[in-house]
């Protein structure tokens, strides 16, 4: 992965329907998105020069914006076309795309009724989210001291920037204690997700159990893995899962656009096996995103 800081890279960024030099794609310090988190975004993967599930990601971007009272000044087709254009200009073959929408600097207070809505799309070459060597063995998670908020307190079904504050806090805490990521519980103390990925558990009978996404994002990758698993005859059970139930599971993995399919070897005091079922789901997912026929 390129080590150059993100504000020092070269090329172009699609910024309010113009192609702007990367290092000149700037905004004023006093913008509402920065101060009041009136900002939504997406994270998308590029595989072999194509954005995986682009239309679904764009639909979710528009849904997130609508839930935040933000009207995007472009159509979904314009955003899709701009996303394809920028990865071609940047010559990204296997990387990441970040569309972001935020309120500007016209008003600087909690109310922002007259602020301009800004849209930008950046892309870059990007490899594995977690250390590839760790992924082979399974990553280790702690259990965060922070919890996903009650669904009546936040727009939980959006990819809004403000919802990620506790994710950053949780991941920093985990990393400072030697873990790769953190498991977050929901407001009732049930298992929710990791800091940026959904979670699945393999039961002893071969079924897969995953939390009901009723206070956190129902990931696009999560839905893909459920479809793949069902096509292979694997039973999927979506339900509330207590942390102490982890002692009954034999396998565990994360799913997400960034995480893809990432095996877990340990969460707190609970250990898991990186089993063939998880390895095969990871292989099947890679076949899907790269449009290969599974063997």
Describe the secondary-structure layout.
Layout: E1 12-15, E2 18-21, H1 32-36, E3 39-41, E4 44-47, E5 50-51, H2 54-67, H3 76-89, E6 95-103, E7 117-125, H4 132-137, E8 139-147, H5 165-176, E9 181-185, E10 191-194, E11 198-202, E12 208-211, H6 220-231, E13 236-239, E14 251-256, E15 260-267, E16 270-271, H7 276-289
Parallel strand pairs: 8-9, 8-15, 12-13
Antiparallel strand pairs: 1-2, 1-7, 3-6, 4-5, 4-6, 6-7, 9-10, 11-12, 11-14, 14-15, 15-16
Helix pairs in contact: 2-3
What report would you give on this structure?
- The protein is an alpha+beta fold.
- The protein has 2 domains: 6-125, 2-Layer Sandwich (D-amino Acid Aminotransferase, Chain A, domain 1); 132-289, Alpha-Beta Barrel (D-amino Acid Aminotransferase, Chain A, domain 2).
- The protein contains 7 helices and 16 strands.
- It has helices at residues 32-36, 54-67, 76-89, 132-137, 165-176, 220-231, 276-289; strands at 12-15, 18-21, 39-41, 44-47, 50-51, 95-103, 117-125, 139-147, 181-185, 191-194, 198-202, 208-211, 236-239, 251-256, 260-267, 270-271.
- β1 and β2 form a beta hairpin.
């Amino acid at each position: 992965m390129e080590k150059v800081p993100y504000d020092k890279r070269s090329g172009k960024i699609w910024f309010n329907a113009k192609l702007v030099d990367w290092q000149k794609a700037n905004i004023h310090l006093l913008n509402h998105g920065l101060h009041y988190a009136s900002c939504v975004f997406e994270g998308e993967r590029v595989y072999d020069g194509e954005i995986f599930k682009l239309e679904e990601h764009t639909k979710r971007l528009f849904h997130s914006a609508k839930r935040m009272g933000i009207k995007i000044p472009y159509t979904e087709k314009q955003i899709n076309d701009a996303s394809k254009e920028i990865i071609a200009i940047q010559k990204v073959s296997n990387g990441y795309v970040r569309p972001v929408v935020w309120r500007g600097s016209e008003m600087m207070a909690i109310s922002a009724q007259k602020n301009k809505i800004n849209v930008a799309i950046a892309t870059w070459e990007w490899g594995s989210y977690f250390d590839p060597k760790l992924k082979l063995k399974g990553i280790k998670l702690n259990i965060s001291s922070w919890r996903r908020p009650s669904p009546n307190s936040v727009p939980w079904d959006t990819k809004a920037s403000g919802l990620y504050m506790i994710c950053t806090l949780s991941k920093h805490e985990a990393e400072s204690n030697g873990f790769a990521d953190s498991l977050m519980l929901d407001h009732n103390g049930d298992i929710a997700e990791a800091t940026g990925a959904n979670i699945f558990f393999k039961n002893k009978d071969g079924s897969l159990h995953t939390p009901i996404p009723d206070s956190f994002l129902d990931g696009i990758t999560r839905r893909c893995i459920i479809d793949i698993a069902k096509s292979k005859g694997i039973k999927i059970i979506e339900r509330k899962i207590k942390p102490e139930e982890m002692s009954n599971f034999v396998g565990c993995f994360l799913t997400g656009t960034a995480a893809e399919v990432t095996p877990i070897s340990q969460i707190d005091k609970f250990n898991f096996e990186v089993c063939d079922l998880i390895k095969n789901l990871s292989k099947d997912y890679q076949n899907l995103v790269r449009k290969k026929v599974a063997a």
